[in-house]
Specification:
The protein is an alpha/beta fold. It has one domain. It is built from 7 helices and 4 strands, in the order βαβαβααβααα. The protein has a 4-stranded parallel β-sheet with strand order 2-1-3-4, with helices on both faces. The longest helix is centred in the middle third of the chain and has 17 residues. The radius of gyration is 16 Å and the shape is globular. The termini are far apart.
């Protein structure tokens, strides 16, 4: 088995962000950096799994959080589609993120959730810095994407997964543009 090398002599960040692309990564990165917290960001892809695990262990030693930004899967899919990116990669990242979050302790920040201020307060308490934001979207490309029947089926399955419903409940649309499906 190939051994992963980390080129970190000492942690030069105060929060590790692990995310699905287009789920609020840049928003979370800017939020933390605007409050003086350096971040390291990795997308939830299989080739990063070992690195994320090793960085998590270092974060645990230092008391630094692993932050997982979230947006409803339909919003993330709309964003992927507006950039002409293949949704299969998005589904792979959601699966990987789900597995990662089952293995390590993380702080969730669902940026489109009605109770997002509560999640932000929990993260603030962890990092010891009062985090505030206007919840401005970064790099957001609004869209009314069209999806194939197979993609719709996969999106509905994802929206009904235990990982997603813990934040967004059983209502598949949860105030999103899901009506466009």
């Amino acid at each position: 088995m190939k051994q992963t090398r980390l080129r970190i002599s000492s942690l030069n960040f105060r929060a590790l962000i692990v995310s699905v692309q287009r789920s609020g990564t840049r928003f979370t990165q800017r939020l933390l950096q605007e409050h003086g917290l350096k971040t390291l960001q990795l997308h939830a892809v299989d080739r990063q799994r070992e690195r994320i695990q090793k960085l998590y262990e270092l974060c645990q030693d230092e008391g630094y959080p692993v932050v997982v930004p979230l947006r409803h899967p339909f919003e993330v899919a709309n964003s992927w589609r507006s950039r002409f990116e293949p949704l299969e990669k998005m589904f792979e990242q959601w699966r990987e993120l789900t597995e990662i979050c089952n293995e390590i302790d993380v702080y969730f920040l669902p940026i489109d959730h009605p109770d997002r201020q509560i999640y932000l307060k929990t993260l603030s308490d962890c990092v010891g810095v009062p985090l505030e934001t206007r919840w401005k979207k970064y790099g957001h490309k609004p869209g009314n994407a069209e999806f194939t029947q197979d993609e719709i089926k996969s999106l509905i399955e994802l929206a009904h997964s235990p990982f997603v419903t813990q934040f967004y409940g059983e209502d598949v649309s949860h105030g999103t543009r899901a009506g466009n499906l």
